Amino acid sequence: MTKAAAIIAILVSLSLPLTANAQAPDFYLGAAGGYGGQTRSPITDHAIVATWSPDDWFFGGYGGVGWRWAAVEAGYWRLPHEHAYGVAPDPLRHGTSTERGSVLFARALIRAPLDWRIRPYAFAGAARVKLTSFEESDCSIALCGKGFVSPFVETITTLRPYVGAGAELGIAGPLSLRAEFGYIPRAVSETHMGTRDEYLGSLALQLRF
Fold first, then answer.
1. Which of 138, 161, 166, 190 is deepest in the core (most CB within 10 A)?
2. pLDDT, tens digit, for every residue of 121-172?
3. Count of CB atoms situated within 10 Å of the CB of 50
4. Is 84 inside a domain boundary?
5. Is residue 28 domain-resident?
6. Could you write out the DSSP letters of every residue in 113-157?
């Protein structure tokens, strides 16, 4: 056997165990629900005095593909709805609104190995937040000007960072549970709605295949 052939044989013999132990990518889907919270900065239209009543609960789903300690995911959340009552002077008027929002997101994960029973992870990505406000007011055209129509519908779409962390617990075969906390800063920023940060805590049932 020539020296070149001997080197090739050694390399092949060394690569066989590595090939046998190579980890294939894993794919998974999850359905989640949880509790959402908001913080708001003051409304920039200081004449408006508003009180907010959030529904708090949200739900959605996601899918991902991972390899070893890294993964990428995409998903959807239906954000908690919020109801508001506001009063403003000059002219004096009263109004109510309902805000309905959703999020489409993509994120990258750093995670613990799949053979750990409890697998912590952290993520960072981007969220496309879409929020629609349905507003009704007793303000008349004579008071609020030509073109005022109640109810008034306004839709705002923003692209914001989305960060957080969680842990996954294997329960049976390909099934696992996830507990997660995420944060979207300045998810909405508008004159009448104020600036709204979203905090999203969820539990998910996940299937790996």
1. 166
2. 999 999 999 988 877 776 665 556 555 666 777 888 999 999 999 999 999 9
3. 19
4. yes
5. yes
6. -TTSSEEEEEEEEEEEEEEEEEEEE---HHHH-TT--SSEEEEEE
